[in-house]
Amino acid sequence: MKILVINGPNLNMLGIREPDIYGKNTYNDLCKLITDYAKNKGLEVEIYQSNHEGDLVDEIQAAYKSFDGIVINPAAYTHTSVAILDAVKSVGLPTVEVHISAVETREDFRQVSFVRQACIKTITGLGFDGYLRAIDTLIENGKN
Ligand code: DQA
Q: If we measure between CA atoms, which residue out of 85, 46, 83 comes closest to residue 67?
């Protein structure tokens, strides 16, 4: 099984940005956590981060026929991007939405998620572990 993990804007700043919300661990720590977990589970994983909406759309499109599932944290684009929603719908791959923070307890503008309607599950508020639970969800989904 081959999984693509996509991270949106400012997630490269993890460890520096708002550590009270996102924690003190860095983006590299997150990548290592995901890579080690995937290795343990015998999965292939690729991790991609961009601050640019169109690049995220390109990456989702490129996953068509080359990945079995997507884990996506679109970050701020969660709340604004119809393009990312349409890209996920276009490729038709099982996709899990992840947020490090508990977005449901935060500002009103974070209560909207465009991508959610194309996702098989949404995981929030578990910190970096949310990505691992998203991978578990794709594994379980692949068994059906
Ligand atoms: C986030 C939540 C978003 O509202 C925010 O814009 C982010 C990160 C999260 O992982 O908690 O950049 O997606």
A: 46
How far does residue 37's CA lie from ligand 1's centre (Å)?
A: 22
Question: What residue ranges define each of the domains in the chain, with the CATH number in brackets?
Answer: 2-143 (3.40.50.9100)
What is the mean predicted confidence (pLDDT) over 32-53? 98
The single residue listed with the structure tokens 């640019």 is 52
Ligand 1 binding pocket includes 76 (Cβ within 6 Å) = yes
Residue 144 confidence (pLDDT) above 90: no
Give the separation between CA 21 and CA 58, rounded to whole angstroms.
Answer: 29
Does the CB atom of residue 10 touch ligand 1 within 6 A? yes
What's the rounded Cα separation, in Å, for the pair 69 and 21? 28
Q: Is the CB of 139 under 6 A from ligand 1?
A: no
